[in-house]
Amino acid sequence: MGLVVHRVPHSTAELRETMREFVESPHWTERLGGSPLSWGLDPVHNRVVVGVAEKNAALDGEVRQAYGDKIFLEQQERFST
């Protein structure tokens, strides 16, 4: 049985720091219209996934310009209690 190592462009530590920076940023909170609905690491795609209530091309472009491929925005429904 052989071992296969896949190199990834971003370390887990780098992605965790990116996630913390994004989630705690007043700028991104304002741009999202509030706090993200969810966030977490996606180890399969080597990125941070951030759940947002509304996703649009302008916001996607801003995030990509600031973070490259490290953050992926995913539109989600906001649950009410």
Task: Report a brief summary of the structure.
This protein has helices spanning 12-24, 26-32, 57-67; strands at residues 38-42, 47-52, 71-75. The chain is of the alpha+beta class.
Characterization of the model:
With 81 residues, the protein is of the alpha+beta class. It has three helices and three strands; from the N terminus they run ααββαβ. The protein has helices at 12-24, 26-32, 57-67; strands at 38-42, 47-52, 71-75. It has a three-stranded mixed β-sheet with strand order 1-2-3. The longest helix has 13 residues, at 12-24. It is elongated and about 50 Å long.
Mean pLDDT: 93
Helix count, per DSSP? 3
CATH topology: GMP Synthetase, Chain A, domain 3
Order of helices and strands: HHEEHE
- Gyration radius (Cα, Å) is 14 Å
Strand order of the largest sheet: 1-2-3
Architecture (CATH level 2) name: 2-Layer Sandwich
Q: Which spans of ≥5 residues are poorly predicted at pLDDT below 50? A: none
Class computed from helices, strands and strand pairing: alpha+beta
Q: What would CATH call the class?
A: Alpha Beta
Number of domains: 1
> Strand count, sense and closure of the main sheet?
3 strands, mixed
Helical amount: 25-40%
